[in-house]
Write a structure and sequence with these properties.
The complex is a heterodimer of chains A (483) and B (600). Chain A has helices spanning 3-18, 21-24, 76-108, 111-119, 258-261; strands spanning 52-53, 56-57, 66-67, 126-135, 141-148, 157-165, 170-180, 184-200, 213-229, 234-248, 273-286, 298-309, 316-329, 336-348, 360-361, 377-378, 380-394, 402-415, 427-437, 443-451, 456-461. With 483 residues, chain A is mainly beta. Chain A has 2 domains: 3-67, no CATH class; 120-461, membrane protein fhac: a member of the omp85/tpsb transporter family (Porin, Beta Barrel). Chain A has a 16-stranded antiparallel barrel with strand order 4-5-6-7-8-9-10-11-12-13-14-17-18-19-20-21. In chain A, strands 1-2 form a two-stranded antiparallel sheet. Chain A is elongated and about 110 Å long. Chain B is built from 13 helices and 19 strands. In chain B, a hairpin with a 5-residue loop joins strand 6 (231-240) and strand 7. The radius of gyration of chain B is 28 Å and the shape is globular. Mean pLDDT of chain B is 87; it is low at 1-25 and 41-50. The chains are: A mainly beta (483), B alpha+beta (600). At the A-B interface, helix 1, helix 2, strand 1, strand 3 and helix 3 of A face helix 1, strand 1, helix 2, helix 3 and helix 8 of B.
């Protein structure tokens, strides 16, 4: 007899012994007998005059028609199975019970509600948010954002943000936005960022993965920007900023060091400090209307900036940048295709060498998401990104707070000359993620996985690649490099 | 081909492969299979003998003995957020991994249920009257006026003097307060969410009337309007603030509450009045387990028929907020005895409305539904959720997201998974559908009228939607359990029954035929030789017909006969054009001619 046939035969015999009727058998509904029939209702039929139901006369409450229903006893087989089940389930049940005791204690003492009010949608002008980020080069970290929506005026805002990560990255930004009229605004911003494990692979689209090295990058900036609203969706932004950037060696834990890997061919600006002023003007056309879940419209932006060093070097250059984003609604509600293309180019003035820290690189928002930050550097950067987004959860309404999933692909490269723009040099990333959208505050964060031929990267971020240019100095945007 | 001998303990390459003739099964493998088979047989073989209660020639039990005098149980105040986490995450995982449920899930392939049957059903598969439930429209004929009256006709607060505000709250989305009228009766006053005047208040009154007529214990709710000069602030009134703290309430607080509310065109405010329940509140009941300090509470709540069946009734009314905090146990005194009475409360979040405003999503998904989320991720957005197609009736602002299409009764989901709902069986569904289908269009019209919608078209639309959803609920259950019910025998030996599907218009175009066959049965429900089927166009059969006499001999009802099995078993089926249904079996005692049991 074959193995399979024996199984079937024995199982069939067992089920026949059990009988199909067991599955259909009615319950043992009453475990306790009704009390002795001592009243007049203890006859074949209920007393006359009782209300008529669809079943006939419905008896009034009496011993003969009253019984104490109890739980059904578990069958023997179930009791047998439950013994090992309860043993195995004991640790998680104990953990859950402990969690519940702790949670209820905190809730009883209003800790949960206070934290919820602190972190939840703000009803007043002052608020505190907790930032969390993970993945990429910076590792896991968090910080605090302090907001005030009526900062020296009913329409002015202030945002103070700090962040630190397990890999020693620290970031501090302060931004102020002052509204003027309906469309104009003045932004003031300052920031400081130090990242001890910044990567350097060399310059150019051929920078090799094997040449990975590390250094400490330190950046600080202060600036101001004024935006004139020419129309509801058209604006001109001018800005001036002072920035300082330095590159030095890292701690030994972050090997290999740049100075060792590139001994004899250190990139310009290493172990130097580059200070200077930049001035820019940008024209922006934004028809998206919101940054939570845009389904139509787009952003078009063109920017020109001039940088001049104040550190005694003769470094100066022009930066030009063009960016187009378009959101395309798809066949079902709240599905959208987000498309983005950008092009940035640094044109030096004279023979000065641009410090490598000020070169274009794949850093926010110009991410090639299958690569860690700072993988590629050069004077030019171009990228195409696409995301297909669809909703996976809504809190109450389809347009309100919720979460979307998305598939992504990024194509892009750096280049030192236009001839280097080629399919051979283009990098490809693909992946997916989740976007969290708030009810009033728009985009809240993303959790993302992307892959390239070199590596896979997971990111947890409170910013996004698309519509990044909405976030100016007030939101802590780093003007290095100029984008 | 020579057999391949296997050594004890050897595996893998010694195992016979498909197509290899003559390969033997290794002993260890055979032993495992045999053990599995014996386990299944042991599990269910003996269980069969205990599965059905023996038949008794006795009156059917219609009352649960759960009102013994007891000491006051301790009050319950379950944490709202933690119970939400438990119900949403931990309880479903527990149910998914419970070995008993897993085995029973396998059994559903053979027609069984995924859980044991409800524990509090009588021999006619009905829920007896108890401190939880009182049989009304499901078992008794009820006029539309009776159904619309509710527990006490929703009498509004007495207006012979201004109402005195005795307590207020500003926490939660909508504010509210408690008032005492001139007769000293205390009412809770609740309002519609801003921008949706009439939705929550209308829904609350309609659903409260329906739940009462269905048989549940509910507060006495009504709709009323009042003006500012009908309110006065009482002495030493406390107001609960959004952070949960309390302080003395001022006139400014009262004005601030009223200022947030929408008003009628004449400047009055519309509100739901909910009369304070009799007795002492001791907190909500959990839909799982029992109240340990209540000796009358003997059945796990997830195994109570009325709580399981509540799932379909809630689906009908889109009562998505069925968390335990929307229930209330009251310690009451009746006839000198103290016991607990169990109530459902707060029906503002029904019929497409919500305390925070209408939401299309509620009723279609849990607040957090990981399987649905995972499904949407894997589907890559190529499938549209049903609720995203739901639209409010055009121009009828008093009705929320309440539609009859798309609507699938069994796909209904409250905000949080409910342990009792998870135990719904086909028989529980049938019981609930029997109640739901008992509400005729006239009943619904009378009940909806109590909502006092300003727009008459809103009332007509609501009635129509309730009727359409009612029919879907009934059809769902009646397709699974034949709706042959209310069997009675008259003195001439005619067994008559009701085809609820035909009577209540659930299958309007079907040409219905019925057939019955009979046999003798013992107390253990063991049956003898069945008679031939007797077909008819009407739901009745004569027990002393020729076909039955041939199988049973003379049925001779009403006279004891110790030479014959003491009971008769009759199987009844219906054919609506798609073949004969599953049988409904009725057991009749020969001696008393009494119907003693019904099996579905």
């Amino acid at each position: 007899m074959t193995h399979f046939a024996l199984k079937r035969l024995l199982l069939g015999l067992a089920l026949m012994a059990a009988g199909p009727g067991v599955w259909l058998a009615p319950p043992s509904a009453i475990a306790e007998e009704p009390a002795a029939q001592t009243d007049s209702a203890a006859t074949a039929r209920p007393a006359m005059g009782t209300p008529a139901s669809f079943w006939g006369p419905f008896p009034e409450r009496a011993d003969s028609v009253t019984a104490a229903f109890v739980n059904q006893r578990s069958p023997a087989w179930e009791k047998t199975l439950l013994v090992p089940y309860w043993i195995v389930a004991l640790p998680p049940r104990a953990a859950t019970a402990g969690l519940g005791i702790g949670f209820r204690y905190l809730d009883r003492h209003r800790v949960i509600s206070r934290v919820g009010r602190l972190l939840g949608p703000r009803t007043g002008p002052f608020g505190v948010l907790i930032n969390v980020r993970a993945g990429g080069l910076t590792g896991f970290g968090g910080g605090v954002t302090i907001l005030h929506d009526k900062f020296f005026g009913p329409r002015n805002r202030m945002k103070l943000r700090t962040e630190s990560t397990t890999r020693g990255t620290h970031k501090f930004t302060l931004g102020i936005r002052l509204r003027r009229g309906m469309l104009d605004q003045l932004e003031l911003g300052a920031g400081y960022r130090v990242q001890p494990n910044t990567q350097f692979f060399g310059i150019g689209p051929s920078a090799r993965e094997e040449d990975k090295s590390r250094f400490t990058q330190e950046q600080s900036w202060v600036g101001t920007a004024y935006t004139w609203g020419l129309a509801e969706s058209l604006s001109v932004e001018t800005g001036v900023a002072f920035s300082a950037v330095g590159a030095r060696g890292s701690d030994e834990e972050y090997e290999p060091l740049l100075s060792e890997r590139f001994a004899g061919r250190l990139p310009p600006g290493y172990r130097d400090r580059s200070d200077g002023f930049s001035a820019s003007v940008a024209l922006r056309h934004d028809t998206t209307g919101e940054d939570g879940r845009p389904e139509r419209g787009g952003v078009r932006r063109a920017r020109v900036a001039y940088f001049d060093a104040t550190d005694g070097s003769d470094v100066s250059y022009w930066t030009t940048r063009g960016e187009v984003e378009q959101f395309v609604p798809l066949w079902l509600s709240h599905r959208a295709l987000a498309l983005r293309g950008c092009f940035s180019w640094i044109e030096p003035i004279g023979d000065s060498e641009i410090p490598f820290q000020r070169l274009m690189t794949n850093d926010e928002p110009d991410l090639l998401r299958g690569y860690r930050d700072f993988r590629w550097r050069d004077r030019g950067f171009t990228a195409l990104s696409a995301e297909y987004r669809w909703p996976i959860w809504a809190d109450r309404t389809a347009d309100g707070q919720g979460a979307d999933a998305y598939l992504l692909t990024d194509l892009g490269q750096v280049f030192g000359s236009r001839e280097e723009i080629s399919l051979e040099n283009v990098t490809t990333s693909f992946g997916g993620g989740l976007r969290i959208v708030g009810s009033r505050s728009g985009f809240l964060g993303r959790l993302e996985y992307a892959r390239s031929v070199e590596e896979s990267v997971i990111r947890l971020r409170a910013d996004q690649v698309f519509q990044f240019t909405r976030n100016g100095l007030y939101h802590g945007r780093n003007p290095i490099p100029i984008r | 081909m020579a057999a391949i001998r296997s050594r004890s303990g050897s595996r893998g390459n010694r195992r016979g492969s498909p197509g290899q003739v003559g390969a033997t099964v290794p002993p260890r493998e055979s032993a495992r299979v045999l053990a599995l088979a014996l386990a299944v047989a042991a599990a269910f073989g003996p269980a069969r003998a205990h599965a059905a209660a023996p038949l008794r020639d006795a009156l059917v039990v219609w009352h649960d003995d759960d009102r013994h005098d007891i000491a006051e149980p301790k009050g319950r105040d379950p944490d709202l957020v933690w119970t939400g986490i438990e119900d949403t995450a931990f309880q479903p995982i527990g149910r998914l991994t419970h070995p008993g449920r897993l085995v029973r899930r396998i059994g559903t392939a053979f027609g069984g249920d995924h859980v044991p049957a409800a524990a509090n059903v009588n021999a006619l598969d009905e829920a007896p009257n108890s401190s939880w439930f009182t049989n009304r429209i499901g078992v008794f004929p009820m006029t539309p006026d009776e159904a619309a009256r509710g527990p006490a006709d929703g009498a509004p607060p007495d207006r012979s003097a201004p109402w005195t505000v005795v307590r207020a709250k500003t926490e939660g989305v909508t504010p509210g307060f408690s008032i005492r009228d001139a007769k000293g009766v205390v009412y809770f006053i609740k309002f519609d969410p801003p921008g949706d005047l009439g939705t929550a208040s209308g829904a609350a009154v309609i659903s409260q009337r329906i739940f009462h007529a269905a048989g549940y214990n509910v507060p006495d709710d009504g709709v009323t309007t009042f003006r500012r000069d009908e309110l006065v602030l009482g002495d030493n009134v406390k107001i609960t603030l959004p952070d949960g703290t309390k302080r003395a309430m001022t006139e400014a607080d009262l004005e601030a509450i009223l200022a947030r509310l929408d008003q009628n065109a004449d400047g009055s405010w519309r509100a739901i009045t909910s009369r304070l329940l009799t007795g002492k509140p001791i907190g909500p009941f959990d839909y799982r387990g029992r109240r340990k300090d209540d000796p009358n509470d003997r059945i796990n709540h997830e195994d109570r028929r009325e709580l399981r069946g509540l799932r379909l009734i809630s689906a009908w009314l889109n009562h998505f907020d069925t968390k335990q905090q929307n229930s209330l146990d009251m310690f009451v005194e009746e006839g000198g005895r103290h016991s607990v009475r169990h109530h459902l409360i707060d029906f503002a979040s029904t019929l497409g409305s919500g305390a925070s405003g209408p939401s299309a999503r509620y009723g279609y998904e849990y607040s957090l539904d990981p399987p649905a989320i995972a499904g949407r991720i894997l589907a890559l957005g190529l499938h549209e959720d049903a609720w995203r197609r739901v639209r409010r009736p055009t121009g009828l602002d008093e009705i929320g997201y309440f539609v009859s299409d798309p609507f699938d009764p069994i796909e209904f989901k409250p905000l949080q998974p409910n342990p009792a709902f998870a135990n719904l069986t086909d028989r529980d569904s049938y019981w609930a559908a029997k109640i739901v289908s008992a509400f005729s269009d006239a009943h619904l019209e009378a009940i909806v009228a109590r909502a006092e919608y300003q727009n008459p078209e809103a009332a007509r639309t609501m009635t129509r939607l309730l009727a359409a959803r009612r029919d879907k609920v009934a059809q769902y259950a009646f397709d699974r359990v034949p709706p042959l019910d209310f069997f009675v025998i008259d003195s001439s030996g005619v067994l008559a029954f009701h085809d609820l599907g035909a009577e209540r218009g659930i299958y309007p175009s079907a040409r219905n035929r019925y057939r019955v066959r009979a046999t003798a049965a013992g107390a253990d429900r063991g049956t003898g030789r069945w008679s031939a089927w007797v077909e008819s166009e009407t739901p009745m059969t004569r027990l002393n017909s020729g076909e039955f006499r041939e199988a049973l001999g003379e049925p001779r009802l009403g006279r004891p006969d110790e030479h014959r099995p003491p009971f008769l078993a009759l199987e009844c089926e219906v054919d609506r054009g798609a073949g004969w249904s599953r049988p409904v079996t009725v057991y009749i005692a020969r001696a008393s001619a009494r119907i003693v049991a019904v099996e579905r």
